[in-house]
């Protein structure tokens, strides 16, 4: 896999080509207004991309400082997600253990089959926890991907923005924006989940079977709120910020963030 600096080198080479093409179009004797406008835009974009490539290290430092300001880092993210995965796995195993005990009791005392419906909420609870564990694994994988690849992703975004005729300007700005926002904001996700998770106060003491299973079933809305609604809402906020930042980086809101005039 190419390193971020190798990609940046390729971006600068392509950016130089784009600048050359832009100057040729801008200085062309062909009296076509659209051709000269395209040349002007390519020159401006090439200068802007060259600036982005040269402040790459500064940009990475700013991202680290933003995380410090928010009081989060990737170590905390991995620790919190890991604890949530452990809590969920323990709850699943304890639920299965409790279900096995109940089934054995029913079998030993020859309980009629219609009473087996009493443990249906427990089965639904275990199934829902299994889905939550899959989601937690997805959050972990997403974090691992962003944390390990953010430098390369930003470099690829700069490379795309450097392509001639601004062919990759939009998608390049989007890639840079999404990487920046999720690199800074994603480590906050497990903290939001942990603060509202009902698994921290889980009780698996077997008392009244009907009451116990109903208590499990009643926790499903709280689990949905903590592990699905809050993450989806937060992800939506991050995506919204990403689109705003994309418009800023790509120069779609007003002028380019770094003024370039010819």
Automatic annotation (TrEMBL):
<keyword id="KW-1133">Transmembrane helix</keyword>
<feature type="transmembrane region" description="Helical">
    <location>
        <begin position="47"/>
        <end position="66"/>
    </location>
</feature>
<feature type="transmembrane region" description="Helical">
    <location>
        <begin position="86"/>
        <end position="108"/>
    </location>
</feature>
<feature type="transmembrane region" description="Helical">
    <location>
        <begin position="144"/>
        <end position="163"/>
    </location>
</feature>
<feature type="transmembrane region" description="Helical">
    <location>
        <begin position="170"/>
        <end position="193"/>
    </location>
</feature>
<protein>
    <submittedName>
        <fullName>Uncharacterized protein</fullName>
    </submittedName>
</protein>
<dbReference type="InterPro" id="IPR049688">
    <property type="entry name" value="CedA_arc"/>
</dbReference>
<keyword id="KW-0812">Transmembrane</keyword>
<feature type="transmembrane region" description="Helical">
    <location>
        <begin position="222"/>
        <end position="245"/>
    </location>
</feature>
<keyword id="KW-0472">Membrane</keyword>
<feature type="transmembrane region" description="Helical">
    <location>
        <begin position="115"/>
        <end position="138"/>
    </location>
</feature>
<feature type="transmembrane region" description="Helical">
    <location>
        <begin position="6"/>
        <end position="26"/>
    </location>
</feature>
């Amino acid at each position: 896999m190419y390193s971020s600096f190798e990609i940046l080198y390729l971006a600068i080479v392509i950016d130089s080509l784009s600048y050359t093409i832009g100057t040729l179009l801008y200085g062309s004797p062909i009296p076509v207004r659209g051709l000269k406008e395209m040349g002007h835009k390519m020159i401006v974009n090439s200068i802007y991309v060259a600036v982005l490539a040269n402040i790459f290290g500064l940009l990475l430092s700013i991202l680290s400082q933003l995380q410090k300001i928010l009081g989060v880092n990737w170590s905390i993210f991995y620790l919190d997600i890991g604890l949530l995965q452990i809590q969920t796995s323990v709850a699943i195993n304890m639920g299965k253990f409790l279900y096995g005990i109940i089934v054995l009791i029913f079998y030993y005392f020859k309980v009629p089959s219609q009473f087996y419906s009493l443990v249906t909420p427990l089965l639904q609870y275990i199934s829902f926890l299994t889905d939550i564990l899959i989601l937690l694994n997805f959050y972990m994988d997403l974090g691992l991907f962003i944390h390990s690849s953010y430098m390369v992703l930003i470099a690829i975004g700069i490379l795309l923005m450097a392509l001639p005729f601004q062919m990759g300007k939009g998608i390049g700005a989007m890639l840079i924006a999404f990487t920046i926002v999720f690199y800074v904001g994603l480590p906050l996700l497990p903290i939001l989940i942990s603060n509202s998770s009902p698994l921290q106060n889980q009780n698996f003491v077997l008392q009244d079977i009907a009451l116990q299973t109903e208590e499990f079933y009643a926790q499903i809305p709280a689990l949905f709120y903590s592990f699905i609604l809050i993450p989806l809402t937060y992800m939506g906020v991050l995506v919204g910020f990403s689109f705003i930042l994309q418009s800023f980086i790509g120069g779609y809101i007003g002028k380019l963030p770094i003024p370039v005039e010819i």
